Amino acid sequence: MERVRYEIDPYNRLIVRGTKSDLPKFRKVLDGRFEVDEKNNLSYRIKSPLSEDENIPHSISLAGDWSLTKEHELKLTLDKESRETFGDQITLSGQILDAGRDSLIFSVATRSAEGAESTHILNLRGWWRADGSNRLSFYLRKENGRYDILTFNGAWEINKDHCVVYTYKKAALIRKKSESHSLIFKGYWDIRDSVRISYLLDGDTQSAFDFKASAGILAGSYVKYEIGIGARKRTRPVKRAVTLSGQWKLKKDAGLVFECEYENGKVRGMVFGADAELTDKDTVLFRLRDSVDNKDLGMVLELSRKVLDGDGEAFFRALASKRELALYAGAAWRW
Predict the structure, then answer these.
(1) 3-state helix, strand, coil in the chain (%, to 5)
(2) Contact, 121 vs 106, CB < 8 A?
């Protein structure tokens, strides 16, 4: 009985092999392209015209578990049914083009039977997280509430605009020359814990990198955390210093705010509540509280009177008369 078996060539093309009694019968390259649907199911849509005696469908669906190779290519480890005709896994050669707030854009280069080159896009849907080793991870959505995890094993950086940047190198498919690729994550920083700092991606999304860190350092013009990243092939974590330059302000309608400038001059503020106390050095000692549930963050900030301009002057006068005041994030202060 004739069997059909498929494989993937270096140009991301599907190849069909027909066998009879385990002896080769034919080998045919099927012109087409890989596609993913809204649940990240992979299929290969065939464009090549097929003769009537070839029992090959126009679209072939593949099921399995997604992962990311160390060369930053997409790998699908196939389930039992797919393995009967495909083997254990397939790897799609290509390049990660972009990381959206809830997506990962992957380009796949291919070549037709006539030698014409083309590129098409796979838009994978899911959300971003940091794993227990502070590595960037993409949770790829699947059916029935399940997900696969694509782990980025390299160490990320922070650029001059305070954005998270992940850079990797790989050989180009055609030229075989090593090229550098960078993914820039658009977002902003937030603090909810003395030993944890979060990077929230723009927009209404559940994507966020929640990084474990050493105790945060707060000063008059910056916020600093040190983070260890468990990168591949390293016995010790790679250290990264997240230093956010900015300005502390007191706003009567908001509370204590640390304003930080991002790309294109966009300013974002981290808002805190605080218990404030006037010191003998004519400075104010703030014991910070979370802006959501008003819990004590275990973080202390000392600011001079010169820093507290604007609404801060009114607050300083009230504090001087009462020695202690409470700041409530989003509800300003009470006196």
Answers:
(1) 5, 60, 35
(2) yes
